[in-house]
Write a structure and sequence with these properties.
InterPro entries: EmrE-like, UPF0060. The chain crosses the membrane at residues 7-29, 35-54, 66-86, 92-108. Keywords: Cell membrane, Membrane, Transmembrane, Transmembrane helix. This is YnfA family protein. With 111 residues, the chain is mainly alpha-helical. It has one domain (3-107). 80% of the residues lie in helices and 0% in strands. The chain contains 4 helices and no strands. The radius of gyration is 15 Å and the shape is flat.
Length: 111
C-alpha cells in the first residue's frame, strides 16, 4: 500500500478508536451507564495510543498534529452518524482546512 494511503488508514483507525473510547467513557460518566462502559472505553483509548505507533513517520509531534486534521473530520462524521447532529458550512469549511493542514504536514516535500 502506498505510504500516503497507509498513513491515512492509520489516522482513520486511530480516530475511530479515540472517538469510540471517548464515547464509552462519556456514556459511563454522563449518561450513567454501568462501570464496564468506562473500563471498555479505557481499553479502547489505550488501543488508540498503540495505533499511532504504526505510522512510518518517526516524529511524534508531527504525527499528533497531522492526526488532528483527520480527527476533526471523523468527529464531525461521528456526530452526524451517532448523534444525528448536522455540521454547518463553517464546520465543513474548518474540516477542509484541517485536512489540508494534515496533508501538508504529512506529505509535503522535505529537504
Amino acid at each position: 500500500m502506498p505510504e500516503p494511503y497507509r498513513a491515512i488508514l492509520v489516522f482513520f483507525l486511530a480516530g475511530c478508536a479515540e472517538l469510540f473510547g471517548s464515547w464509552l467513557v462519556w456514556q459511563w460518566l454522563r449518561v450513567e451507564r454501568p462501570f464496564p462502559f468506562g473500563l471498555a472505553g479505557a481499553a479502547v483509548l489505550f488501543t488508540y495510543g498503540v495505533i499511532h505507533t504504526l505510522q512510518s513517520e518517526s516524529e511524534f509531534g508531527r504525527i499528533q498534529a497531522a492526526y488532528s486534521g483527520m480527527f476533526i473530520v471523523l468527529a464531525l462524521a461521528w456526530g452526524a452518524i451517532a448523534d444525528g447532529w448536522r455540521p454547518d458550512r463553517w464546520d465543513l469549511a474548518g474540516a477542509g482546512l484541517a485536512l489540508a493542514g494534515m496533508a501538508l504536514m504529512m506529505f509535503g516535500p522535505r529537504g
